[in-house]
Request: fold
Amino acid sequence: MLDWIKQKVSGTSAPEKGPAAPEILGFRLGGAVELNELKLRLLDDQLITDNIAKVQLIQAVGMVKLDESNTVLRYYTDDDGYFQVLLSGGLQEEHVSDVKLFHFFDTLGVNTDQDWDELLKNGISHSTYDFEGHCFKRVWDSVGACPPIAMTEQTFTVDEPPSETDQFAMLYERQLNDGMFEFLLIAGEEKIVNYRAERCQVISTGINLSRADFEIIG
Reply:
């Protein structure tokens, strides 16, 4: 996802009219977000991700319809990350139930169908996931065996019509000091480009945000 967004943002094709990118809490395509500096300082030495930019520019927007009631909006930034907003029961601000900030840690190419099948079967969903010396516990369906959660993301950029990426993901968490958590998102992503499947494994880490932790400044 990250590499594809960078290609779209740096492209030179003429803008094409299409559906408008969704907006919420002031997050919008082309906007800017400033993070609470105190929050960053408190978490800095506890997180796997470091050097989080205080001001981030939104370069692309993603939308995932999880089901009839729940929608995820993602606002991809120039800091190799994204703000993720979960809405339940509608698409207005009163339906916002969760806000997180994720940063991409690594993207690994998946070259063969066999490797892709193995990733989906054994590489994404476990009851616990050891990563960078830390043990993360599965958040979604935490008890028993659980396949990755399948979803399709529609992505909006300034210069291109919307496109779609199929994702197979699992979310994990570990507790930090003061009751806070760091999250780990493991996903297999598949996008059809010129009738061929481009596949990769994407590893991201994230934190919860309250509305006091960020300000829309543009």
